[in-house]
Here is the input.
Amino acid sequence: MSYNKKRTPANLEKLVEILPPTVSTNLQCLKCGKLFGIEFPAAHTSEATPNSHHFSCWSTQPLRLEGGMGVLCDVNGSMAMLETLYDILCDATKTDYPRCGECSRKHGEEMSRNLMRLCNLRTKYAAVLDNFPTVVGDKDEAAIDAELAQLEAQCQAEELSLASLHASIETEHSIGKQLEEKKQDLAMHESQYWLEVNQSVVDESAAAEESHYLDTRLARAQKELDRLVCTNLINETFYLCTEGHYGTINGYRLGKVPSPAPDNEETNAAWSYMVLLLHTLANVSETKFSLYRLVPRGNLSYVETLVPRPDVYELYAGAGGWFPSARYDKAMCGYLTCVQDVVEELQRKFPGVGEPPVSIKGGAVCAREIVGQHSVKIAAGTDETWTTAMKNVMIILKWCIRVLAVHKGSS
Here is the structure.
């Protein structure tokens, strides 16, 4: 804006009316970070530069007004002065400035509270200082020295008591540490004890199960033993029975009755079991044969004479067929003689057993030949009589087995 009119008081008053009375700017609060505005009055001056024709409210140079009367609005100077004031205020209060109105109000209230607190302290200190000369003046120097010595003695006593207290605390700490170690040791031993208790319970349970298992096995073994004791092993091994006209041993027939008649193999098998059975009975009863000795050899068993001279008689049928022979008859007579020796030994050892169901008698040639009413010699009778004689021999052997089972087992 330019003015070409002369400077007159009326024009100056109009210029003052249109100029802004204050200048405003925005600042940031260093406490809360908010923006706030600040205003300061414009500075008027009577100096004017004749050559200045324009002015601006936000110019970096002082604002000038043309026409003989200058009006200066110095914004930069006011800002510099405000910045200087803020620096002085920051150094004096140890607080960051500028601040907004709210932060300034709170800070002022806090400073007022601090001022009141300091005033109260000053009042108390002043009261103490006012009374101090009076208290000191009432006592002489000797009393003060005595009181000071007493206080020093009390201080030393308190220090000794404090040292003793510290020593007691250290002792208590040491005792507490030892107790804690003992507690941990006791907890470890307790844990080990319960582990051992649990293991002992497990071992006891296992031992009880093992004992129950052994008791069961023992009961079964005892039951089996009782059954075996009551079992006649000889009777189980050599099963004697009758089957029609025949006497059988372990299922093999011994005789010669055409119904149909057994062959030589079945007859020889029956004689092998007969010889082995009589040999076993003699060993169990401890019988000593007088005239003959049995030699079990399966299907080739034979009878051996002892007196007057050793001789052998085959106790099996010939492989070529069924032919009576004197040696075969003598072997059967020798076998019957051995049966009579076992019967006599049993009657001697166990009196009261009585006589066997079928009697054995001697013949004209052999020591023993007749059993019951029939001869064991094939040549002395028919096939039916010889079959009956073999059946009677098996009956006598069955009687010997029963006598041994009753008397030998009980003894």
In short: Residues 1-9, 11-16, 43-73, 319-324 have pLDDT under 50 and may be disordered. The helical segments are 9-18, 75-93, 101-137, 141-230, 233-237, 264-285, 326-349, 383-410.
